Structure formats: structure tokens, C-alpha cells
Amino acid sequence: MSAIPEPNHTWADLLNGNQAALKQIYMEYHKGLFQYGMRILLDEEGTRDCIHNLFVKIWTNRKKLKHTDNIRYYLISALRNEIINYRTRENRYDHNEINLESFVLDFSVESVYIRKEEINEQTKKLTEAMNQLTSRQKEIIYLRYFEELDYNQIAEIMDITVKGAYKLSARALEALKEIMQIDKVILIGMLLSAKQNYWH
Amino acid sequence: MQAEKYLNYTVEDFLGDDDFIRYVKYQQAIDLQFWNDVLTQHEEKRTDFEQAKIQIRIILSAEPMAIPADLTDSLWDDIEMSIEKSKRRGRIVKLRNIWLSGVAACLACFAYGSWYFYSDITVTTKYGEQKVLVLPDGSKVRLNANSSISYARAFNWNTSRQVTIDGEAYFEVKHLNQNPDDIKTGERFVAEGKKLRVEVLGTTFNLKSRPNVNQVTLVSGKVKVKSIVTGEEKILKPGEFARLATNSKFVVNGTATVAPQLSWKENKLLMAQTRVGDIIAEFENLYGFKVILPDTSMADKRIDGTISTASEESMLFVLKNILNVNVRQEGNNIYLEKR
């Protein structure tokens, strides 16, 4: 997904019953949606089903849909609901506890984003600490930095309040402090950026 | 973007800044220029700036999930197919209105109900095929090839047990009668062919209603047969068989064994001085061909033995050898020609 603002006439075309517009939106977003779904479900078939249902529903309900300036936000939010429904259905048969607390986001210093000269003790420790974040924290980070959603949108999507987000971050901070002794500023910066944005 | 804004920026401020995130993520030349300018003006921010940058880099280092190679096309095909389906459904829904659909539903229920109560069940066998079925009263029927049986649905079976046969069938009728001096209508079982009617209480019998032969063979129990044309009635004992002669009168014969009349159930034809004409007729009955003989005298020949009727090929093969003829098939006609 690119950072270029979406031309929102595509959405308007879709609402007017233009199926080519639906395909255009699909083409632009399906891979990102697949990435996001897979990180929660870790199940190709399930993720495909959810995206399938999402697009079919958008088409059949297009007359009731509102205009949006941010298709990406709309799609991610809707896909998450699909995934919750899917999970609920699946769990009914398994009698498992409903578990949305899984989010795969594996950080690695060997990635292309990190230059060799930047790999030092601190980056390694930071990476290690970030890998130990909770699923919810990882999801916040994913939505913020990969999908470039703002914190209001993320709070909406994840159904969390400012207070809840603060608690989530604070608890993580306490835990992380014990795991490693790195600069407190870095940790605050990393984990409380969500909180800070709510207070803007 | 005002450079002064960054004067009091900390690491977390950089981390929360959309412009900063995009700069680290996409490395656009224009952003690079801008942030260079910011840093030359606020050299003291460089440490925080670099800290934030490495953190975003770590975040972006998260491994991508594998995307199946065919995802784009196959997933879209699925979506498109579902949309096409829903379009078709949508059109039907539009045509409907609640009042009309209510009336239609009532009519449908009524029609279905009438059809259900008054309709017949018909079971048919193809050429060379046999079927076994159980009737609503529990009686068993084996249907020979190229035959059919019709009967009313379960609704009427308490008051009359009646079936119609075209072709040949073997019956094992369930005995329902309690008191032989007081036979209720529902205890009678009636099987009707084209030209004769069989009335029983609980017996085993074979009914043959073919163009060339109308015959009832009794295996056990007691039956009353009636010629539909003349009204003539006969009571048969086990081992007897009644055949309607060409003058529509019954000819009743008793034999030591009824096996030849029942051997069709084992896909065999038992012959004891049996006319070739009758064998050919049976072949026509079972497989639907028209057999043309080289001369009529051949039909009057009599033969003994067993022929397998399991397939038309095996039956033709035996006939060919017994009669010493060549077989030539033209469409539905089979010509037996002298060698």
C-alpha cells in the first residue's frame, strides 16, 4: 500500500454501482488486507474467506454505505470485523475461548531496513524487546507504521479507549523495564507514542 | 512543514510524526532534503532523530507474510462469482411482492398436496435392467427388464392395495388378513396387467403382462385371476400357472416346477421344449430389439437348455449357435440369417 492519498472518486463510483471500481479497490488493497488478516489468523483459507466476504458485502450493501475519504481505514476496520465473526464461528465448533490476542509481527535486525553499521547491542536489545510486546501492542504498531493509520482510527478499529490504551502501554513499559536495561526514553518513545497522540 | 516545530521534538515526537515516518519508510529525495535542512538548523536534535529512525527501521523490519502466487486472480474470481450469484438472486427478489408470494405459496401448497394425495408412483426398468422395491405395505416386488409398476402413494394404502404392471414382476405379498371369514378391502392385494387381474391375500406369484404373453404363475398361497376382457375367473393353486390364450380364455397348467417361469430373476432362461419364437419374443421384451427370422418355420423349432439373459450379447451368442445363423444388426432390428 502506498502512502499516496486515495482518489476518493473510486469509492463514489463503487457506491454508484460501478463494478470496475470495486475491482480497482480490490487490486490496490487486497495484498495489504491479506497481510493483516494472516497476521491475526495465520490461516490462508480463513483469511481468503474473510476478504472474499468483505468484498462481496461491500458490493451487495453499496447503496447503504457512506462516503469515505480513507478507503484503507474503512477496509481494514471492516476486515477486522469479518475476522472476529469468522473466529466466533470457528470457535463455536471447537469450543475454544475466543482468542483475538494473536498478532504475528516478527522483528529482525537482519532485515533490509537495518544497515549493517546500525546493528549494535542496542538495536539487538531493542529488537528483542519489541518481539516480546503483546499481540495488541504489535497490532497497534502494525496499524500505525505499516498501514499509516492515526491513533484515533486505531482506537476505533481495536475498540480501545484512551484510558485503556494508556494502561496497555504502561503495563508493557513496566514489564519491558525489567527485561532489559535500555534507555527509558527510547521505551517511552516507542510504547507511549499511542498515548501521546490521543492527547494531542 | 515548519522547521521550528521540531525545536522541542523528542524521540517519541519523531516516532509519532507522519512526515517523519514516511521519510524513513519511503526515502523520497524531497523528504531527505527537508530533513537535512531541519537537522542543519537544529543540530542538537540529531541524536533523537537518529534514535527514532532506527526504531522505525526495526519496526519496518517485521517479516512480511507470504502471499500465495495465485491469490490476486483466484480470490477475485471467487468474489466475482459470488457477486454474479447475488445479482441473480436480487432480480428474483425484485419481481416478488409479499401479497403475490403469499398467494403463490398457498397455491403451491394446495397443488403439492393434491398432487401428493392423488399422484402415482411409477418405477420403470430399462432394457436389461431389474429392480427390487418394497411397496408401502411392506410387500416386495422384483421388476424384470423393460417393465414398469405404478401405485398410489401411501395415503390410500390402508383401504386398497393396488398396483398396475406393464411387463413382468415377481411379488411377495405381505399377508394382512386376520380372519379368513371376514376379509376387509384393505387386506386384499390387487395386481393388474393389461389383460388380466390378480387378487390375493398374501402370496408369492409372478405376473407377466407382455405383448406376446399374459400369464400368472403361483408359487405359494392362493390367487384369483380374472381376464379383464372376458371376465372369466380362475383360482390357482401353488405350482399352477394360468395363461390367456389368443381367444382370451384361460389355459391353466400345472407343472412339477415353476422354475422356468421364475428363472428370469437369476438372469436365465430355462428351456424345456420351448418354442424358438417364444425365446425370441422374450429377447425382444428384455432388450427392446426387433428380431427378424429368415423363415417362419424356425420360430416353431423347440429347444432345451439354459440361456443367460444377463446381456444381449450373451443371449444373441447362444441363439446364433443353437440356430446356426449369422447375426446382423441394423439399428433396432436384428436379422438372423442362414449360414
Automatic annotation (TrEMBL), chain A:
Keyword list, A-Z: Sigma factor, Transcription, Transcription regulation
Domain of life: Bacteria
GO biological process: DNA-templated transcription initiation
One Pfam entry name: Sigma70_r2
Ranges of residues in domain RNA polymerase sigma-70 region: 25-92
Family classification: Belongs to the sigma-70 factor family. ECF subfamily.
Official protein name in the record: RNA polymerase sigma factor, sigma-70 family
Organism annotation: Pedobacter xixiisoli
TrEMBL record, chain B:
TM stretches of this protein: 98-118
GO molecular function: sigma factor antagonist activity
Protein FecR C-terminal domain residues: 270-336
Domain of life: Bacteria
Cross-referenced Pfam families: FecR, FecR_C
Keywords noted in UniProt: Membrane, Transmembrane, Transmembrane helix
Protein name, per record: FecR family protein
Organism: Pedobacter xixiisoli
Organism taxonomic ancestry: Bacteria, Pseudomonadati, Bacteroidota, Sphingobacteriia, Sphingobacteriales
